[in-house]
Amino acid sequence: MILSGLKIQENLGKNIIIEPYDEKFLNPNSYNLRLFDELLCYDEEILDMKKNHKTKVVKIPPEGLLLEPSRLYLGRTLEYTETLNYVPMLEGRSSVGRLGLFIHVTAGFGDVGFKGFWTLEIHCIQPIKIYAGVSLCQIYYHTLDGDFLPYSQSGKYQNNSEIQASRLYMDFAE
Q1: Catalytic site residue from 38, 82, 91, 121
Q2: This prediction's pTM
Q3: Mean pLDDT by 10 residues, the chain (174 residues)
Q4: Is 121 in the active site?
């Protein structure tokens, strides 16, 4: 079952942490998350799953940044979240999707126990200008049935503060 907006609000500070939190971003069954003012782009055109790739930071200026189609931009949410006892999920807002902007390729599914900022896998259908601070996506929460192993405190993406490029290469070292 998906938590209602009121249930999300009821769990703030207990099983759900959203910082900063503003009630105006609360929806009937989700909470809007905003875009931080930086993006990360890969420097290489060909990406190898077994390698750690060089990236560059792109600052989003106050007048906005024009995104190009067929390019992957990694962003992050302005909000820090923690989730205990619920499964956090991330989706783009319909108003954003109707402009042909996608906020995740495959990583909309979160893990119980995740603590950090959400990395967004941003790409667009046609050129689009984006702005820092825009409500780009929404987080919602599923209940969980049964005992679970929480997301590892030493997980590859746990307790992040920066935009995180893929760390899949670490799986090959095991």
Answers
A1: 121
A2: 0.91
A3: 97 97 98 98 93 96 96 96 94 95 84 91 97 97 86 70 86 78
A4: yes
